[in-house]
TrEMBL record:
<dbReference type="Pfam" id="PF00126">
    <property type="entry name" value="HTH_1"/>
</dbReference>
<dbReference type="InterPro" id="IPR058163">
    <property type="entry name" value="LysR-type_TF_proteobact-type"/>
</dbReference>
<dbReference type="InterPro" id="IPR036388">
    <property type="entry name" value="WH-like_DNA-bd_sf"/>
</dbReference>
<dbReference type="InterPro" id="IPR005119">
    <property type="entry name" value="LysR_subst-bd"/>
</dbReference>
<dbReference type="InterPro" id="IPR000847">
    <property type="entry name" value="LysR_HTH_N"/>
</dbReference>
<feature type="domain" description="HTH lysR-type">
    <location>
        <begin position="1"/>
        <end position="60"/>
    </location>
</feature>
<keyword id="KW-0804">Transcription</keyword>
<comment type="similarity">
    <text>Belongs to the LysR transcriptional regulatory family.</text>
</comment>
<keyword id="KW-0238">DNA-binding</keyword>
<keyword id="KW-0805">Transcription regulation</keyword>
<dbReference type="InterPro" id="IPR036390">
    <property type="entry name" value="WH_DNA-bd_sf"/>
</dbReference>
<dbReference type="Pfam" id="PF03466">
    <property type="entry name" value="LysR_substrate"/>
</dbReference>
<protein>
    <recommendedName>
        <fullName>HTH lysR-type domain-containing protein</fullName>
    </recommendedName>
</protein>
């Protein structure tokens, strides 16, 4: 007996969500609607798909078999949809992107605006968040991540570039407070740092011979926003450790100078990551292609 694809999709969602309630939330249905759909499916198939208790929900042997084949069938349908989608000229639907707050505003947002302008039927939602979100659970198509990636079987990544952290100050501050010739001199200067658990984040530096140093600044000011730290440094208030992409313009025009230029941080990789799915919608593929093609040159030029 044939079953409706929507009912099978609900069944697969219940299995993967672990409960009727979680599935209902994901599908934007009531729990009652999900339960009735599963009951109708069981009636059509003539088998019991789930073992139900007040606290747990698990598959019967018949349910496990049906899930295996249902999941495979839905994956094949999605794959076919993707192939058809890739033949379209214009991307459609909602593209959800997550990016770090400041980096996302400066570098990711302009590219996503550019993508949205190129595709009239594409809607882009860009979420700025410095925490590491779960793409699948939170419903995002892709994310930008800075730093070493955790091992994951659920995500695919493409490297977009690297960035470094540099020590900087204004020429006026250096003139008033004296030069910094050695790492130890930093302890005699006013420093501005990013806090972590109530204390300044360590500055991880390396010299030209790749010798590593971890310095904990005696910060007079701690600000939990890189833009705020930069603004404070520009007011001649001290020395800070800031991303090169954030201070590139100021270093070029001389409003900031690099302190201890022979030292920099290790490279921090920048990646675009997306869920490891059996298919990739056109909107996601176009966004990744644009980031990979344009991002490195745009990052180095700013």
């Amino acid at each position: 007996m044939q079953t409706e694809l929507s009912t099978i999709s609900i069944f697969v969602t219940v299995v993967e969500a672990g409960s009727f309630s979680n599935a209902a939330e994901q599908l934007h249905l009531t729990r009652s609607a999900v339960s009735k759909s599963i009951a109708r499916l069981e009636q059509r198939l003539g088998v019991t798909l789930f073992k139900r208790t007040t606290r747990t929900l698990s598959l019967t042997a018949e349910g496990a078999l049906f899930y295996e084949h249902s999941q495979r069938a839905i994956a094949e349908i999605h794959s076919a949809e993707s192939l058809l989608d890739q033949g379209k000229i214009n991307a459609t639907g909602l593209l959800r992107v997550s990016a770090p707050v400041l980096f996302g505003q400066l570098y990711v947002a302009p590219l996503m605006v550019e993508l949205a302008q190129q595709h009239a039927d594409l809607q882009v939602e860009l979420s700025f968040n410095d925490r590491t979100i779960d793409l699948v659970e939170d419903g995002f198509d892709l994310a930008i991540r800075i730093g070493t990636l955790d091992d994951s079987n659920h995500l695919i990544a493409r490297k977009l570039g690297d960035h470094r952290m540099l020590l900087c100050a204004t020429p006026k501050y250096i003139q008033q407070s004296g030069p910094v010739n050695h790492l130890d001199d930093l302890h005699q200067h006013t420093t501005i740092a990013y806090p972590y658990s109530g204390s300044p984040t360590k500055w991880h530096l390396q010299d030209k011979n790749k010798q590593l140093y971890a310095i904990k600044p005696k910060a007079k000011l701690m600000l939990n926003d890189m833009q705020a730290i930069k603004n404070t440094v520009l007011l001649d208030q001290g020395i800070a450790w800031l991303p090169d992409w954030l201070i590139h313009k100021e270093l070029q025009d001389g409003s900031l100078v690099q302190v201890l230029a022979e030292f920099s941080s290790v490279d921090f990789p920048i990646h675009v990551v997306w869920p490891a799915l059996t298919y990739m919608p056109l909107k996601t593929r176009l966004a990744i292609d644009l980031l990979v093609a344009v991002f490195p040159s745009r990052l180095s030029a700013n």
